[in-house]
Amino acid sequence: MGSDSTRDRKVLIYVLQNREGLALTRYYLGDLTWEEAEKMLKEVDFVLVPIGSTEQHGPHLPLCTDYALTEMICKKLVEDGLNAIIAPTVAYGCSEHHMRFPGTISLKEDSLYNLVRDICDSLFEHGVKRVLIVNGHGGNREVLQILARDLLSEGKEVLVVNWWEFTGGVEDVLGAETVIRGHACEIETSFALCLMPEKVRKDKIPKDHEVRDPRIDIDGEKVSLKPIHDWKELSEDGSIGVPSRGSVEAGEEMIKRITDHLLKALKKYLERSSTSS
Ligand SMILES: [Zn+2]
Description:
Elements: H1 4-7, E1 16-17, E2 23-24, H2 34-43, E3 46-51, H3 65-79, E4 84-86, H4 109-125, E5 131-135, H5 141-153, E6 158-162, H6 171-174, H7 186-195, E7 216-218, E8 221-223, H8 248-276
Parallel strand pairs: 3-4, 3-5, 5-6
Antiparallel strand pairs: 1-2, 7-8
Helix pairs in contact: 4-5, 7-8
This protein binds zinc ion.
């Protein structure tokens, strides 16, 4: 993607002094030469592997939403001090449930597993300390958990985070859920308005759309009895929630919390692993 290169010319934050005193200012693996990679991959605390999907996001958000936002979150983590290199973004994920919407590209679970496994195995072969899979799509969650468990049992240190889960709650920012949310909803619309406003079709943000909640209500508590396999059952336009409630301000607040929480969690994780080893 490299979406930062032309728009955002501010000085790259990640600076690594090599033995000759030469400042290397790059943090995307794809921007390094093999000689730079040889050194930096062994030195950083994490190699981030951003993973998203190419799938419908309602009438107002582009197909790139999950992978573009995930890559931007990774960039923010590094700019805010995480000692990490960012591997090229995986732009595809498991999106079978969105296939009735044109443009969606879906990997089979085995394909995602094998693809990300090969990426992780390659990185470990080059001596990285640990890999942090930064996932931006709910449909990838199960596969990535299974993969991380398998790699951990082989002695490879792999962490997985679903970055949108690190808001610490959104009710105070966006209000309580009135219509089932979680995809192209007010939360994701706010992220997009904040991080890639030029890609949001503002005139297409749904105002009165019908959303069918598949969950069962038991005295006010919503429970799920079957996985969602066809997004059309929830919404004709592909978005859920109340996207028109989304705002730049809400996006900024949530992104700030997410990066803060993630950085704190990763710092604590590193402190714990350094004392236990
Ligand atoms: Zn999404």
